[in-house]
User: What shape does this take?
Amino acid sequence: VQLVESGGGLVQPGGSLRLSCAASGFTLDYYAIGWFRQPPGKEREGVSCISGGGGSTFYSDSAKGRFTISTDNAKNTVYLQMNTLKPEDPAVYYCASSNRCGSSVNVWGQGTQVTVSS
Assistant: This one.
């Protein structure tokens, strides 16, 4: 059972990135996937979550209107499209699985770094 994130990098303010979270060893039909981030020197916080099967999505206030979470069941992968990136968005972004959005995490990914700088 494993989650592997990719897609992080350096982007200018106002730019976009798409993060990927590839799952192996289990199917996303039955588990929720959440995206979390941990800015430097701060605690980890929730960003977005998609329910098993993709029927429901949730966003933090900072992500609403700028980020979009989606699932590709054929690839067993969850994406986080991040647009209009701001100077307060840099962090290590993690994906994690749980039985449902808001419940305790079963598996964490290793994280991917997002840097926003001009």
